[in-house]
Amino acid sequence: MNSLSRRKFLKITGATAGLVVAGSTLGGLVKKSNAYIDKKYENGKGVKKIPTFCDLCFWKCGSIAYVKNGELWKIEGNPEDPLSRGRLCPRGTGGPGAFRDPDRLKSPLIRKTERGQEQWVEVTWDEALSYIADKMNRIKTSFGPESMAYFVHGIGGNFIKHMMKAYGTPNISAPSFAQCRGPRDIGFRLTFGEDVGSPERMDIQNAKCLVLIGSHLGENMHNTQVQEFAEMNGAGGSIIVVDPRFSVAAGKAKYYLPIKPGTDIALLLAWMKVIVDENLFDKDYVDKYGFGFEQFKAEIQQYTPEWAYTETGIEPELIRTSAREMAKHKPATLIHSGRHTTWYGDDTQRSRAIALLNALMGSWGRKGGYYYPASMSVPNYPYPPYPKPEKGKVDNPGNTIYPFATEGHDTITNGVREATITGKPYPIKGWITYGTNLLYAMPNQDETLKAIQNLDLLVVVDVVPTELAGWADVVLPESVYLERFDDINVEFFKEPFVALRQPVMDSPNEQKPNWWIAKKLADKLGLGHYFPWNDIEEYIKYRMTAAGLSYDELKKKGIIKGAKQPIFFNEGINPEFPTPSGKIEFYSLQLAGLGHDPVPKFKKHKEPPPGFFRLIFGRSPVHTFSKTQNNKLLTEMQDENELWLNINIAKRLGVKSGDYVKLKNQDGVVSNKIKVKATERIRQDCVYMTHGFGHTSKKLRQAFLKGASDSQMITQYTVDPLMGGTGMNVNFVTLEL
Questions:
Q1: E strand or H helix at 122
Q2: In 3-state terms, what secondary structure has residue 664?
Q3: Exposure string (b/e) for 75-90, b if CB count within 10 Å is 16 or more?
Q4: Which CATH number fits domain 613-736: 3.40.50.2300, 3.40.50.300, 2.60.40.2340, 2.40.40.20?
Q5: Full-model pTM
Q6: Which of 127, 416, 427, 587 could link 423 by a cystine bridge, Cβ 3.0 to 4.6 Å?
Q7: What pLDDT, in 10s, does the model give residues 25-84?
Q8: Residue 406 CA to chain centroid, in angstroms?
């Protein structure tokens, strides 16, 4: 960090020490072993290697599981896999902890008493599935199939999703859209005509300048990105970090901008004005591929660095210097799109501003910027056509509420919840959830519980007894990813490849894989013809054979790579932009036509009341959302979260690092106790905590009441008018000592 940006950081608190401790590593990627050698394995003795891919986040890293003398020993990255590149993050290597978790769900359960009392009867799989099928048939008869909704997270949910489409519901929802990536994808689609995708289509490895706006690489452990970030940093690349908190990534930055929370659009607009006014943008690129540039230029004229300083707290000199730094390295300047982008309710417009800044750099379709993902052609299984629902999606009738949450995107989770509460536009009477704890994924837990009380059926499919499972009518115990086959992963990435998840160990009790659950439930619903294959291996073999690929090779190696494909314009990609104009839309007529700003504008957000701080939250490098805090291998590294509190505020309140406090939000909700981290590395107007802790399910013995739950504090949210995402950084807390 140079002297200019260091001086600006020191003005957060006036402190003069403590900065060098910020993130001396990038979060602990585990180096691949030299022991990638098969040893003799006979009669269950010796070491056996089985390739699979990880399920502890959406990155789906290729892995090698080692079974030693019949016991699961360890997991490492698969050197052949383009996502892991032979390395796993701490979560990936902690996979055996999920397998050995003593609190795992073991048998199907049917609720015995009132919802939430967590009193159960153990039943057989036949009894559980018969109960569900009977309830679903009654809902279909009384309300229509559309009155069942499915919430899903991860590739493991594909077969239940298939079953629900065969049943006839359009209400299939992933919290990752409305509570995470949705605004980003829509903002980029409105600009370039395409989503960023998952994994994100970013060439960090070849970037000369990387700009991170609230993206905590090194803490948010997206494997390939963190590896490329380390390589880019090691090669002398320029890094610019915008964040209210001096994160691990900020410790690597040439310029760190300690922005006031909620003012990111103001900074983005000021950056763009500097770049346009000083003719620092890629003019040839903009002239060739841009639409509406002159209107865009006129719209941003009011946003000077001096104006932005009054909103963001970032001095004009630093705004100009960092903008020129970006321009110096174009087109290999990559402004990171982010992943969790549901912050303040205007998040699609903020993401669109990030997309427009990338367009000024000429980075879309260029090396060191955003590439065009490559993929292999693997035909789908030839299922019968799904029935056509008589009713549209419950959240967005006729696309009249959220105009850009259109076909191709899942039903919005909060829209399903609202319809479950109100019965409008039609009742939702049943939920099936897979791999997602909605009480931690969605804002306002009381609204979620109110919706649940209106249901005739709540089915939870999971591997551990989450808080949501405590409210279910039926709980179905799934095999962990190390015990099952899932759908093949036909990845969209820099390199085309197909990957296989396959069993490493047998399930220890009555757990079953998701494909088996979906197929057996479909049989009981009279939908067995939608599952004409006998087992999942038959299904996978069909798809592989149809693609001209070897299933035996896939099973042996875990991955089959395709031929190299062009991913940049200069490699042969035809620059096409599926927008209404067919170009990069600096000025959006489709937004203007619907009464929305054609160019992003800055709008002030509500300030904390006196004595309160804005609550911001993020990820831990050793945990995935709220799903791994009961994994003993991972809790040995972090068993509770901390509250980052500015050290001057801490002194004023008479607290120090290691003290425990409780939080009370603007609605009077009080948290469990949380340990204070008093530090110079955060602004005085906000506090920060990692997401996913403070579990209240007593059946999660390792995680019960360890740390505090940010989800409990998020009682307020603001809905993005363009796509329905829930802005959750609009909550304020004070400390109870």
A1: strand 120-122
A2: strand
A3: bbbbebbbbbbbbbbb
A4: 2.40.40.20
A5: 0.94
A6: 427
A7: 333 343 333 333 344 455 667 899 999 999 989 899 999 999 999 999 999 999 999 999
A8: 20
